[in-house]
Amino acid sequence: MIKKIEHIGIAVNSISEALPVFEALFDKKAYKTEIVDSEFVKTAFIRVGESKIELLEATNKSSAIAKFLEKNQGGFHHIAFEVENIEGEISRLGNSGFNLIHQTPKQGADNKRIAFLHPKSTKGILVELCQENS
Ligand code: ZN
Question: How far is the CA of 54 from the centre of ligand 1 (A)?
């Protein structure tokens, strides 16, 4: 079951440049910055009510964020939904014809297991499923 919007991912060229803008926008400090080596990204999270904003910066050229920023100026990158049972959702969505980038969950930022759906099957929106590690 999809429970809520967990966070919205925003691609930026530089977290150190972008973070003060978002911290001023929300009048709040980021509660965490974290490097996810497997994804070649640096992330920063700001809580906004029940959801979060995740800023993503590429740590090298093979990062999906680096590729995104070659084609886009930056900005909205993905929407993440919190799920109760990520394996169950992966199989439900796979059986419903959605194109999954990850067939099995992988370790993501902020203590979550994650899986992405391909934007081709979600009307151009990159969708992340995430479940808190227990
Ligand atoms: Zn995310």
Answer: 6
How far, in Å, is the centroid of ligand 1 from the Cα of 47? 13
Q: What value, to the nearest 5°, has the Cα angle with vertex 54 and ends 60 and 74?
A: 60
Distance 25 CA to ligand 1 centre (A): 20
Type of residue found at 10? I
pLDDT band of 115, cuts 50, 70, 90: very high
Ligand 1 mean position, distance from CA 103 (Å): 17
| 73 CA from centroid of ligand 1 (Å) | 18
Using only C-alpha atoms, the chain has a radius of gyration, in whole angstroms, of 14
Task: List residues bridging with 53 in a β-sheet.
Answer: 8, 46
pTM over 0.90: yes
What tokens does 87 get?
């394996």
* pLDDT tens-digit series, residues 59-84: 999 999 999 999 998 999 999 999 99
Residues contacting 124, CB < 8 A, separation 6+: none
- pLDDT reading at 86 higher than 90: yes
Residue 3 — φ and ψ, nearest 5°? -95, -45
